[in-house]
Amino acid sequence: MPTRNKILIVEDDTDTLEMLSTYFQAQGYDIITAFMGEDALKVCEESPPDLIIQDIRLPDIDGYEVCRRLRRNLRTSQIPVIFLTEMKDRSDRIAGLKLGAVDYVTKPFDMQELRLRVRNALRRAGYESLVSPVTGLPDTKVIDERLKSLLGRKGWAVLCISLANIEAFNDVYGFVAGDDALRAVGLIINNVINEAGSPDDFVGHISKSEFLLLTVPDKVETLRERIIDRLTRAIHYFYPIKDREQVEAGARRERPKDAPVPALAVEIGIVSGAVTPFTSVREIKQAARAARVTVVP
What we know:
By secondary structure, the chain is α/β, with parallel strands linked by helices. The chain has 11 helices and 10 strands.
């Protein structure tokens, strides 16, 4: 069953908000709503939508500022934004487009036209993205295609590499620091493949904290050991300088709210087509995740 696209509607006029929500829900979209710009930013940081429809005139910060702050955050920088507003001046339209808005619809508007603009914006953005916006590595769709090609074959192995406790890390240091850590892990895996992998090895970013590395059986242990070695030496650099000493020492520094320094860990699991006859992509993923053990505490 295809995934429903999620749209965030930011509008302080309750009648317009209800009309848009009802209409787009009927079109098969999952709808989230926000009355204020700050609320919209919070929603996007916690669970980025596939597209935003937003008014420019909001009670707290205006839509331009919302868009500006979305573009500064790597996690939200690629979300398509459609401005929906009564402001019709050419300068207003240009201001929105300069900030990266994909479209600009003035009130009153035609619902059918807006629906088509939404559909086209989602298509242009590639809502079934082929690459992760955080790491630039192939995303779920590409990974699933590669895993599907392994079914019925024996000469392959898969490593599932996870950066555990990333949510707690984000809570303390913010999503930008967390995304930097994930990007570093992706780069390290790629470098190891380039140095010691086979020509057809493949790595993808399958979920927020998980990577899948596809290789051949005679390379899997070498790759695993090198990844462990590199991440063991690198993981403390994911932390701000002020906390690195405590992380390296394995200590826990008490923070103002009694929250300890979040302990990132690396988990790796391995599955092989030579051991188990997998019949679906889902089975391969589940087996790889179930096989994970902590290798960098």
